Amino acid sequence: MSPRVMVLGLGNVLNCDDGLGFYAIRDLAREGWPADVGFIHRTEFEWSPLFFQGCQGLVLLDAVAHGNEPGTVYVYGHDELQRRRDCLRSPWILDAIAFSSVFGEELSTEFVGMEPGSRECRIRLTPAVSSWYPEFLQAARGRIDNLLNRAGSPAWAESAQAGIPHPVR
Questions:
Q1: Residue whose C-alpha is closest to residue 55's, from 10, 110, 22, 100
Q2: % of residues, the chain, pLDDT over 70
Q3: 116: containing domain
Q4: Whole-angstrom Cα distance, residue 12 to residue 26?
Q5: pLDDT in tens, 40-49
Q6: H helices present in 30-152, as ranges
Q7: What's the CATH number where 66 sits?
Q8: What is the pTM of this model?
């Protein structure tokens, strides 16, 4: 079964806060989401609309520089993300998403970003970003939940009825 909701972490873990998307998918994937939620890092992604085949929702996670305080969290829905495509360091991802509609319905997309403190060559998040990281994960969980509810995820609904705990909100 292909995931109904894909969570795609963007960025480079070798460049300090730029690795935010990688850390987030690593941590979120450990939380016991239903099988119809997939987690993938950009290094596993090929520019191919077939990658999204069967998906109904996509959550993009990345560091994004708007010039605000490091740790500022940004959440954009599908329409706002299209208007702010210049904020993405990989705007081609939106072209792949748009092209995926050739194979079915338009892929609903959400974005969660955080203002980086540094993108220098280091394998750690800066203290400023680390202190706001739990809020970033909370925003990402909310976007995943939102897309699961929209997709009518049977696994999510069944586990809720059975009393199986979901990730901590």
A1: 100
A2: 71
A3: 5-161
A4: 13
A5: 887 666 555 5
A6: 78-83, 92-100, 127-151
A7: 3.40.50.1450
A8: 0.81
